[in-house]
Amino acid sequence: MTRFNWQNPYPTPRLPVFARNIVSTSHPLAAQAGLRMLWKGGNAVDAAIAAAAITVVEPVSCGLGGDAFALVWDGKKLHGLNASGVSPAAWNVDYFRNKYGEENGLARQPKRGWDAVTVPGVIAGWEALHAKFSSLFSSLPFADLMEPAIEIAERGHAVASIVAYKWAAAVPGLCNQPGFADVFMPHGRAPEVSELVRFSGHANTLRLLAKHGPRAFYEGEIAERIAAYAREGGAAMTMDDLRGYRADWVEPISKDYRGYTVHEIPPNG
Question: What's the total number of domains in the chain?
Fold first, then answer.
């Protein structure tokens, strides 16, 4: 029996779930997506990748252009994955100093726009996780893992209350960024609670990943469109930056504390 104290001191406690398989996310539709993969015979990594439906139902928190970190226990060994974004090759101190000037003696770097965007790592993270653990355990085809997110993006979902709050909070800082309003402000504003939202473009991207595999994001049609759009926006990111990206397997760091060992991804994690 565990020595953990289950007496929750907070006024709105959630009871622990004891089950053979659990998928935990911040949105029920994403959790359901992961559970679908387990019911189909997939493994925990399959479920985690399918839970990428979170990019559809929480688009202001997670996205296909984001980063990923993973700690995976295979029953014998703990594996660490760093799939965080890297800088485009053209970025350096002089690049930012010449383009944006200095502030307090340091090159100024923008917080918004293309020159704040690193090479996306999350999809390469899915690729690395699926490749490694499909060889160790029974695994579903990558295309199957995209099914739930594609369905939700196409048929639409009712926006959750906390998501609507975060969405509205993001609008003032992002509404003038190219393309943002077209996708995330379909009625000239952030969606309201329970409003139906569809992402046909997101679904198309996921379909291409399902058909051609995750490398299509870095080397195929998707990559070409990203590079072209970046070029139109005056960005430094190129096809070479996308093509050269790979996620890194890293050795987790750990610390013993009061009878427990806590593990984490090393810097920059």
Answer: 1
d(CA 24, CA 30): 9
Torsion on CA atoms 146, 150, 152, 153, rounded to nearest 10: 130
Q: Which residues pair with 83 in a beta bridge?
A: 68
Helix-strand-coil split of the chain, %, nearest 5: 45, 15, 45
- Would you say 51 and 30 are in contact if contact means Cβ atoms under 8 Å apart? yes
CB atoms within 10 A of CB 149: 29
- In whole angstroms, give the CA distance from residue 179 to residue 182: 5
Report which secondary-structure segment, H or E, holds 148: helix 142-155
The DSSP bridge partners found for residue 260 are 257
Residue 148 amino acid letter: P
Residue 105's pLDDT band, with cuts at 50, 70 and 90, is: very high
From residue 257, alpha-carbon distances to 71, 123, 128, 254, 260 in Å are 19, 34, 31, 10, 5
User: Quick one: tokens of 115?
Assistant: 């020159």
In a domain, 105, yes or no: yes
Q: Buried (b) or exposed (e) across 185-221, using 16+ Cβ within 10 A?
A: eeeeebbeeeeebebeebbebbbbbbebbbbbbbbbe
Q: What is the spatial distance between Cα 133 and Cα 39, in angstroms, rounded to a whole number?
A: 18
Which domain range does residue 121 map to?
28-156+198-264
pLDDT tens digits, one per residue of 170-182: 999 999 999 999 9
Residue 237 belongs to a domain: yes
pTM of the model: 0.91
* Dihedral angle, C-alpha 261, 265, 267, 269, nearest 10 °: -120
